[in-house]
Amino acid sequence: MGSFPLCKTHDSAFPRQGCNGCPVGTDTDPLRVLPTRRYYPDPRAPVKLATAEDLLAQAEKGADGDLVADIADAKDVRRLVANLEKRLEANMTLRAKYHDDPGRFMDSEIALDAEIRRTHAIASAPDLFIDFCEAGGHLLVTRLLGHENGDIAGDAASLLREMTDADSGGVAGGEEGSREDAMILTVALVEADGLEALVARLGTFDERVEEEAQGVQNALSAVENMLDVYPAVAGELLRRTELLPWLLGRIRPKQFDPNQQLACEILAVLLQDSDAAREKAGEVGGVLATLKAISSYRKEDPRSEDELEYMLNLFDCACSLLMLPANRARFLEAEGLELMLLILRTKRKAGFGAFKAIDFTLAQQPAACERFVRIFGLKALFGAFMGRAKVLREKGSEGERQARELTARAVSILSHLFSLLPPGSAERERLCAKFVENEFEKCDRLVELLVAGLGGGDAGLGGEAGPLALQQLCTVFGHLFGVGDAALRRHLTKLLHQNKLPLQTIRATLAAMHADLGDADGAEQQAEGRRRIVVLLRGLGADAEMMARLGEAGPAAAVGGAAAAASGTGNKDEGMVEPAGAGEARQEVRGEMGGAGGERERERGSTGRGRSRDREDAGRVHRGSSRDREESRRYDGDRRRERSRSRDRGRRERSRSRDRGVERRRSRDR
Asked: What is the maximal distance between C-alpha atoms in the chain?
């Protein structure tokens, strides 16, 4: 090689045909037939030696190529299962015979591990799962999960994860067919006690070892897949395994890894739709464990997108637990409200979840509402209500969506507080006083949201939260209107006139809310919720005709409503049922705003009695409007007189101050 001259153009000892820069590269040169440098490396190039890791990877790659099994029909599946059973029996026999000498059964264990890897080929043919189960393959997987060797059990968990994955490729029959086949395998595993074996194995893996940590991930992924294809597995997991306590112990504070994220996702799924899971989790300390994990994000934000998703799952778990009254009591005992407020004061991403947890805590819990006010929660609440929450938001459209979500949560919390705080209590007085301070700015915000919602929008709170938030806004308005403070009522009336928003519109929304109340929480809660709405309607001046349509026109109801309205509170409630939406009545309300006398036109009959009733209604509306305008004028006059008196007091105080200064100077001169 060294005797050949180098090509100046190609920097190679092997010139090509027609290379003008090579003294030997001519058309007649026999060297032109030699291979180019594409096949032979440059002899001057440094030689790269293969490392031990490279050699191991090459060996594994070659071994994996030999472990691929061809699965074409049921016959191949039966042969694969028979080979796996043969390897397992041979290994178990040798283990029992030479349990003190691992070297005697190590070869059989290696062969068993190789056979498990060959069995992975069945995952690409879900339509043959039923043949796999008929051949007893699911029983072998259950036995392998209990193997003494953690690597063997980890490979079995990996096989189970791939077979229960409904989104795997190569599916005959499409995704739906894959889900049905995965469901068949899941049911067979449940009947063969596969859930117990899988969960029991989770407690024996040592996650400090990389291979066993991967085994935990495979096992959790298999559980998640089974919950996806067959949700009824959740009940079996709760009754027959100890998965729930293991998951609660796995969400350790100030630690994050992929297995912890997966465990939290499964925990959120289990708690979402099962009262039994929420009750059991509360009994084994789930509320406290969740709060400890959440406390890690009080002073710092998640460091990655995966950790952010983990944090949101933690708050979902906490809110699911708070759906039970017993867990709400445990939440208060563990000072969960105080922790949520601490999070809200640090301007972190966890603030969204904190508002959500507070909303769930205060629902139908008078003691929680009183405690929230006593620990100075109103400051954070009204910051969100006014759009000034101390929460770290994203930029752009996502940040606007988050701001609407925070406002919707604040409106919901206000609705709970007004409905559940006892009348005449110090906490209720503090809440009402917030709407008076700073020249009624919070009343302005309330009516602004009402106008946006009743005008055909979504109350500025997002499409999903709009209908419910609109009813909650009307509830808050009704409570404020009946507080008994003349200045507050005059200001609300003035705002309605300025925005051309009839009071009848709010009454109609509350009437629709009365009709939409369901009995999901029981007939007693439904009746109590409707009674509270009737009290609000009477405080807003609803006429006898509306009360008759609601079925509340009896003498006893009228006396009770009048007494409640006269008291100025009209709220002796224990809870507020949140309806699903205003429905068709809400469309009627919007039509009323768009046209003059739209509702009267729809209700007007052809008889003289109907026309007379319309004239009486018009007279009442005119007299009511006149009274409202008169109250508005009196209110404006009072405000002007108060400002004039304030200016006079200021001038007198400045004059006294100048006189005192003159006297001091005269004293110094003397």
From this structure: 128
Q: How confident is the model at residue 575 (pLDDT cuts 50, 70, 90)?
A: very low
Between 467 and 105, residue with greater pLDDT: 105
- The residue among 212 and 605 whose pLDDT is bigger is 212
Whole-prediction pTM: 0.71
Q: Is the dihedral of CA 202, 205, 206, 210 positive or negative?
A: negative
> Helices 275-283 & 243-250, crossing angle to 10 degrees?
60
**pLDDT: which is higher, 601 or 498:** 498
Go through the domains of the chain in sequence order and give each one's CATH number: 1-43 (no CATH), 67-241 (1.25.10.10), 454-616 (no CATH)
Closest of 200, 292, 185, 286 to residue 237, by C-alpha = 200
Number of neighbouring beta carbons within 10 Å of residue 152:
20
Q: Yes or no: say if 159 and 141 are a contact pair by the CB < 8 Å rule.
A: yes
Write out the H or E segment, with its range, that includes residue 285: none
- Of 228, 147, 223, the C-alpha closest to 190 is 223
Cα(432)–Cα(23) distance, rounded to whole angstroms? 100
pLDDT at 234 over 70: yes
Closest-CA residue to 407 (of 436, 374, 384, 429):
384
pLDDT at 388: 86
Cα within 13 Å of Cα(438), Cβ side: 9
d(CA 450, CA 495): 11
pLDDT for position 47: 56
Are the C-beta atoms of residues 127 and 182 closer than 8 Å to each other? no
CA–CA distance, 662 with 165 (Å, rounded to integer): 91
**Best CA proximity match to 156, nearest among 207, 225, 246, 88:** 88
